[in-house]
Amino acid sequence: MEGGGGGSDLEREEEDDSVSEVLRDRFRLSTISIAEVQEQLAKDLELFAQHAGRKSVNMEDVILSAHRNEHLATSLRSFGNDLKAKEPQSERKRKKTSRKEDKAIANVVHIPDN
After folding, report:
1. In a designed cystine with 72, which of 28, 50, 66, 68 is the match (CB 3.0 to 4.6 A)?
2. Which residues touch 55 (CB under 8 Å, ≥6 apart)?
3. Cα(63)–Cα(42) distance, rounded to whole angstroms?
4. For the whole model, what pTM was predicted?
5. Per-10-residue mean pLDDT for the chain, 114 residues long?
6. What CA–CA distance (Å, rounded) separates 103 from 106?
7. Phi, psi (5° rounding) for residue 5?
8. Positive or negative CA dihedral for 63, 69, 70, 74?
9. What is the DSSP string of 6-53?
10. Closest CA to 46 of 35, 37, 57, 32
11. Would you state the pLDDT for residue 111?
């Protein structure tokens, strides 16, 4: 007497193989879909940065990319503000100076008042 579902072992193996194949195909399609979305996101971020005249992506570009999902955009803004608040003042990005200005600043000697 066979146990379980009334079918033969061969039928169950074929059914298991069929289910495994369907799951594998769905996994592949999902993986491809995720990769395509990530690639498009990277292209969008690059275009946003270029449009702003920058060579690198910043937090504003990431927030802009989430504009269709207001909840996500709000969460990203909050996260960005939290990061800025935690960043020490001395490490915040300052306006870059030219090499000429850097040399001039390095050559300045401070004379204390007596």
Report:
1. 66
2. 49
3. 13
4. 0.57
5. 62 88 96 95 94 94 91 93 85 57 50 54
6. 5
7. -85, 5
8. negative
9. SS-HHHHHHHHHHHHHHHHHHHHHHHHHHHHHHHHHHHHHHHHHHHTT
10. 57
11. 53
